Amino acid sequence: MQSDERLIVALDFPTADLAKNCVEELGDSVCHYKVGMELYYAAGSEIIRFLKEHNKKVFLDLKLHDIPNTVASALAVLTELGADMMNVHAIGGRKMMQEAVKAVHAKAAELGRPAPKLIAVTILTSINEEQYADLNYKTGIAEQVIALAKLAKEAGMDGVVASPQEAAAIREACGEGFLIVTPGIRPAGSDVNDQSRIATPSGALKNGSTHIVVGRPITKAEDKKAAAQSIAAEIRGV
Ligand code: C5P
Fold first, then answer.
1. What is the pTM (predicted TM-score) of this model?
2. From atom 20 of ligand 1, which residue's Cα is the shortest distance away?
3. Which residues line ligand 1 (CB under 6 A)?
4. In this model, does residue 2 exceed pLDDT 80?
5. What is the Å distance from ligand 1's center to 215 Cα?
6. Would you name the residues annotated as active-site residues?
7. CA 112 to ligand 1 center in whole angstroms
8. How far is the CA of 183 from the centre of ligand 1 (A)?
9. What is the tens place of the pLDDT at every residue in 197-223?
10. H/E segment holding residue 161
């Protein structure tokens, strides 16, 4: 069965070898991977090169947040490595996001490659109402998520990372073509683990997500390939 680039498998592993074994086991069933802080800090650019050599798309989930010049320079380096999608925290502000977009586009043009997609994290989905109150924002979470998604769009970002529950409102506020990448995906009947605001793969896409990020339901499955193929089949049916 063909792979589907809307399915992004989270390679949450502490070593390059474990991640590579997983990619090899999944073979052609998956073409898009997420490399987060754990794996990137352990394996560095080696894992990105490995994935690109295997013709995989790479979402580098490092959630950058610093002064505009630092974030822009870091993203230019990561563009050179070949990541296809990267992210920053929207609360870094308009200027940080604008500079990020400019740097990534300039580096990609210099290399003669398509620019990687840049997406923004709004409010982390792990933040509950109680923790959110500590942050002393003026509006509630839902309103703040939409305000930050709109700011990201105005700054030239390609989309956001969001929970599947936020996807429909973001789609309405930011229009078609805006990427909405959603973790917290659990196929019907699978283990919820520590996720709370979850949706099924097809439910997330129906809510407006353009990509789903799936980790443990695939990487911890006895038959990883079968798990990935079953999710790919489900989303193809939407
Ligand atoms: O194993 P599981 O499917 O829960 O993995 C989800 C992936 O998405 C993990 O890499 C997790 O860090 C990431 N993620 C998330 N929630 C967010 C942002 C990222 O679960 N809000």
1. 0.96
2. 183
3. 10, 12, 36, 124-125, 161, 183-184, 193, 195, 213-216
4. no
5. 7
6. 63
7. 32
8. 5
9. 789 999 999 999 999 999 999 999 999
10. strand 159-161
Region label for 163, one of left (φ > 0), alpha (ψ between -120 and 50) or beta (otherwise): beta
Q: Which atom of ligand 1 is nearest to the CA of 36?
A: 10
Q: Which has the minimum average pLDDT: 74-78, 125-129, 161-165? A: 125-129
Alpha helix segments (H runs only) across the chain:
16-26, 37-43, 45-53, 68-81, 94-111, 129-134, 141-154, 164-174, 201-206, 216-219, 224-236
For 7-236, the fitting CATH number among 3.20.20.70, 3.90.740.10, 3.30.300.30, 3.40.50.720 is 3.20.20.70
92 pLDDT band (50/70/90 cuts)?
very high
